[in-house]
């Protein structure tokens, strides 16, 4: 005898689907100019939420200045990579507050600093797992960099041609690793915060969105990279402005890219 279904059966199936692990949430198709719109929205949020922007901007600035001072104090660039690993661990958690502030403002609420700080605990297990994943990627790059030094010219004042293999291989490997890290992290953190999905769902969804919108994502990655370089070029002071704007912009990028629940 065929089974009959009632509405509760479908509700249960929907809940199971919402909590399915390692799935890929569909994405929208973006224009190549979309990142500039996200940047404009991020700048608007920066102006509209000065206290929140200043707090998180100061946190990012302090971390960047700490790296610069550590390099100068040690007198060697060998501490840069370990410092960046720490930065990669704390960065996503600081960005959570910015995402939450934009989210609250988007819903028509008054964003507050205390509320934004609570976002850190919204999906902490997945967020910590993702931070560790980023740290592992950075450690992997450190090991590769150590191996690359084996082909680094040992003679001081060697001609440029002797440096070319080192520069070429290092640039290619660095670009590949940067592309991988960007792909898995472009939308993962805001997705884990808003929908409380598991880390693998967030990663798969982010990679899928980047793969299907390569043009827009290349532009957005360039904007993010430029903002970070500007921050460090000003000895960390620029982070006071660039990181909050990029953080807000990332939320708007996520909101425009990942399809909403129905």
UniProtKB/TrEMBL annotation:
Q: What keywords tag this UniProt record?
A: Membrane, Transmembrane, Transmembrane helix
This protein's superkingdom?
Bacteria
Give the stretches traversing the membrane: 54-73, 79-99, 128-152, 164-193, 214-241
Keyword Electron transport applies? no
- For the keyword Transmembrane, the answer is yes
Protein name, entry field: DUF2189 domain-containing protein
Q: What organism does the UniProt record list as the source?
A: Vibrio astriarenae
